[in-house]
Structure formats: structure tokens, C-alpha cells
Specification:
The protein is of the alpha/beta class. Helix content is about 40%, strand content about 15%. The strands form four sheets. It has a six-stranded parallel sheet, sandwiched between helices. Strands 5-6-7-8 form a four-stranded parallel sheet. It has a three-stranded mixed sheet with strand order 1-3-2. Helix 2 packs across helix 3, helix 3 packs across helix 5 and helix 12 packs across helix 15. The protein starts with 15 loop residues before the first helix and ends with a strand.
Length: about 425
């Protein structure tokens, strides 16, 4: 509901879930399996239906104002969205075989569509409120009780829960009482043709980086993602390295709604991070790139000597996989699916702590030891080849058709 697969990445709430939905729909299309994604129209321009691939459509429904609105306001629009989906399907006499909802807001709708259409219902959370609250960064927004209640209801009623990592599956059992047999782990994939090592001389020249080594942080700008840790680690590194060795940090992404609200007193999260960099004396080494598309992101990741993913929680950690596919070593928090991507001491480093000094030490090792970086790079690419969207969809289709799920049957909406 709050993040369309055709929306620009890196802005607002758009991120890994958008990539996931688009890639899965495109791969299902290649197999002749049609899909329809219902989302809320967030702008007045553009068609009501956008084609993603052969037989795959995004349908944008007029629910609430046709503009970007605070995510906190979306909960009140859920009954209207539910009715709009039912009415649209009835109008076109659309036939569906199953429902797969993504994120808790859509799960609220899915529960009602399952009862309306009497279809099997799958759900992927992407993030969990209790996990975010349990591991929240200082100053981060606390997820509301009504979200936790909705997530609990989804766990209780969905036919199948698709977790992106073993950690997320464990969290669903530990924090929500999900049945082990109800949860299956299906890891996201990566486009190995797009995310691959590539020449970066032109990009380096355009950014006027000279010979400086590059650190990349990519993600929504909010406390959860931990960009502040990278800025503080950069300051520690700069105090230890000669001026000629000073790295440059590229921050890719823009403020999310949470980021804007959490740092409202500073003018938003980006403004807060920039002020922090100035205070620490590294503002000349930090570049805020803003949101970029997947093609550009692959270029920035290939340019980097290291990608840092210091999130306080992740269901998976897609940017770590995208970096690994580009052959870029990753220094990351040991959360979500990251340990499956970043093999500590072999392809990168993972940390339990969020101490900037520990991040600085690991980043510094990679910046100063070119041979270590090359070894990690080769191994990273090999690990990434184990993850593909084809494999993801193989697993999803198998689960869709599994005997333990109620028999799939066509139904006329309404």
C-alpha cells in the first residue's frame, strides 16, 4: 500500500520491498504466471494501471489524497483500500488463485480479501514491529501498538508466512508465536547481470574523487539504518590515517517519513547527518548523493572499496547482497539475513556491536590492505551467485502449490 514497485527507489518509503516485488513479478511473468499488484495512487498523474511485464500489472487505486502522505495516516485508509480492491476486481471480473500480501498494512487488507474471495493467503512482513522496537537505535521512532496487533492477527490467520531469513523466521516464532510449520524461508535474490563488477573510471572522474578510496552507505535515511555509525567511523578513521589516505563516504538515499520525523528538530535525517559530519570535521569527505535507480546503484557499489550496512534490524539486508554481487566487500551488522551473505572474515566483516570504533577498525583493514580487499571481493561474488531471483521464485511457486496449502482454485471476485 505504501510503496509501489514502480515508484523511484531511495525516496520516502521506497527500498528493498519495491525491488523484491518488481523482480518477483517479472520472473513470474517469464514463467507465464500473471500477477496484479494493487497499490494506492500517490500522485494525480499517470495511468491507473502500469504494465510491469507480460501479464503483470500495477493497479493504482484512488484511495485518500493523490499525493505522498505520512505512513502513519495510511492505517485509517485500509477499509477504503480494501473496498477499492474488491470493487476493481468485480468491475473487471478478475479471477485470482491466491493472495500474497507484503508488509503489515497490506496484510490487514489481505485478511479481508481472503474471507471475501475464499483464497489461500500468503504474507511477507519485510519488517516486524516487535523486532524494530526491541533493537531500536537511540532516537528512533517506536512502532505503535496497533501495528503489533495487526501483525499478530496476520500471524494467527495467514495460510503461509514467507520469511526472508532464518533470523526472521525465528523472530516470528519467538515474538509472535508463529507455528514452525506455518513459516518458510525464501531468501530474496539479486540481478547478477545488473549487479556485477564494472569499470568505474568515468564515475570516479565525474565525482572528482582523485585517488581517494570510497566507502558507500545505501539506504533510507532514518535511525534504523545506522548511517550515523558510518559518519562517526569515518571521523575516527580520518584521525588515524594520513591526509593522503582519507576516504570519501558516499551516502545514497533520502529521508524516509520516519527519518524526517525522528530528526525534525534538525531539519530531517540528512540535515542531522550533515551537521554531525561538520561537528566531527569530516563534512568535506561526505557526499550525499540522494536516491538513485538500480543501474546507478550498481555503479556506486562497484566504485566502493567497502559498503557499510550498520542497520539495527533487517529482515534480509538486500543492499549487502547487491554489494557482494558487485564484488564489493561489506562491513555490516549481524542482523537478519546478512550472515548468510557476508561471511565474517572471508567475504567481509559482521559485527554484533554498533560501536563506531569497531566499524572504523574493520573498514580500515579493508582500506589499507588491498590484497585482503581483492580476496574478499572474489569470494563475495561467489557467494552472491547462490542468490538469484529465479531461485527465489522457484521456492515461491513451490510453496504456492504445496499440498499443505488449501487447493488453489480460481474465483470470481465478489
Amino acid at each position: 500500500m505504501h510503496a509501489s514497485p514502480v515508484a523511484p527507489l531511495g525516496a520516502g518509503e521506497n527500498g528493498g520491498m519495491n525491488v523484491y516485488l518488481r523482480a518477483v513479478c517479472e520472473e513470474l511473468s517469464r514463467r507465464g504466471i500473471p500477477t496484479e499488484v494493487f497499490t494506492r495512487r500517490s500522485s494525480a498523474s499517470g495511468p491507473d494501471r502500469v504494465r510491469l511485464a507480460q501479464g503483470s500489472w500495477v493497479t493504482r487505486l484512488a484511495v485518500g489524497p493523490a499525493e505522498e502522505i505520512d505512513k502513519g495516516r495510511l492505517f485509517d485508509l485500509l477499509p477504503e483500500l480494501t473496498q477499492a480492491v474488491v470493487d476493481e476486481a468485480r468491475r473487471r471480473r478478475a479471477r485470482y488463485q491466491l493472495i500474497h500480501t507484503h508488509y503489515w498494512l497490506s496484510g490487514w487488507v489481505g485478511a479481508r480479501l481472503r474471507d471475501e474471495w475464499r483464497l489461500p493467503w500468503f504474507h511477507t512482513f519485510h519488517t516486524l514491529a516487535r523486532v524494530k522496537n526491541e533493537r531500536a537505535a537511540e532516537g528512533a521512532m517506536v512502532e505503535p501498538d496497533h501495528r503489533i496487533a495487526v501483525e499478530q492477527t496476520i500471524v494467527r490467520n495467514a495460510d503461509r508466512l514467507i520469511a526472508s531469513s532464518l533470523q526472521e523466521a525465528d523472530d516470528l516464532v519467538r515474538l509472535y508465536g508463529a507455528l514452525r510449520g506455518q513459516v518458510v524461508v525464501v531468501a530474496p535474490g539479486v540481478d547478477l547481470r545488473l549487479f556485477a563488477p564494472r569499470p568505474t573510471a568515468a564515475l570516479r572522474a565525474r565525482l572528482e574523487l582523485g585517488a581517494a578510496k570510497v566507502i558507500v552507505f545505501a539506504g533510507r535515511l532514518e535511525r534504523l539504518k545506522g548511517a550515523e555509525i558510518v559518519v562517526r567511523a569515518l571521523a575516527l578513521l580520518s584521525g588515524q590515517l594520513a591526509a593522503t589516505q582519507s576516504p570519501v563516504l558516499l551516502v545514497i538515499g533520502d529521508d524516509s517519513h520516519n527519518g524526517a520525523r525522528e530528526s525534525q528538530a534538525s531539519g530531517g535525517e540528512r540535515a542531522r547527518l550533515l551537521a554531525l559530519a561538520r561537528t566531527l570535521g569530516v563534512d568535506q569527505q561526505v557526499r550525499f548523493i540522494g536516491s538513485v535507480d538500480q543501474e546507478a546503484l550498481a555503479g556506486y557499489l562497484s566504485l566502493a572499496a567497502v559498503c557499510v550496512v550498520p542497520s539495527y534490524s533487517e529482515s534480509f539486508g538486500l543492499v549487502a547482497l547487491e554489494a557482494a554481487a558487485c564484488g564489493t566487500p561489506v562491513v555490516a551488522a549481524r542482523v537478519g539475513g546478512i550472515p548468510a551473505i557476508v561471511k565474517d572474515g572471508l567475504t567481509g566483516f559482521t559485527l554484533v556491536s554498533h560501536d563506531p570504533a569497531q566499524y572504523a577498525e574493520r573498514i580500515g583493514r579493508l582500506l589499507l590492505d588491498d590484497e585482503l580487499g581483492r580476496c574478499f571481493s572474489r569470494r563475495s561474488r561467489l557467494v552472491a551467485t547462490q542468490f538469484s531471483w529465479q531461485e527465489t521464485v522457484d521456492r515461491l511457486v513451490a510453496e504456492y502449490a504445496a499440498p499443505r496449502v488449501p487447493e488453489l482454485r480460481p474465483a470470481v471476485a465478489g
